[in-house]
User: Fold this.
Amino acid sequence: MSRHATLLVLLSACGCGPVDQRAATAPESSQTATEGKRPTEQEKIEALIKTVEGLPDAVFVRNGSDYDAKTAGKFLRGKWDKTPDVKTATDFIDKVASVSSTTGKPYTIRFKDGKEVKSGEYLRAQLEKMEKPEGVTARPL
Assistant:
């Protein structure tokens, strides 16, 4: 299974992002290939970025400026590429996706309803959903 297809299956399975029709209609053998397989840390990081990119009508706030979800995902991926000591999804959240490395200001996500949450808190909750065993409910934000 391709890296992209694996991520799509992971995203749809954990409820972390929009379901892609290609993943939903993938052959049974592709879907069962990921059952029982724990995602790698890189796959978890990619899934977190895809989660941000897929937030409908959300605004990513960085250093006082607003960015759409796609731009935020591109930014996070670029910052991740420049941060070689990120080994785990938790490292990614802590070192890349939570605060500005230049100003120290936290990144936030503002949803359509006006609710604003620190991106680190949001991404930790998403990671918890990814890592939780089936049938266990994650704590709400």
About this structure: The longest helix spans residues 41-53. The chain is about 50% helix and 10% strand. The helical segments are 3-14, 21-24, 28-34, 41-53, 69-81, 89-95, 119-131. Residues 100 and 106 are 6 Å apart (CA to CA).
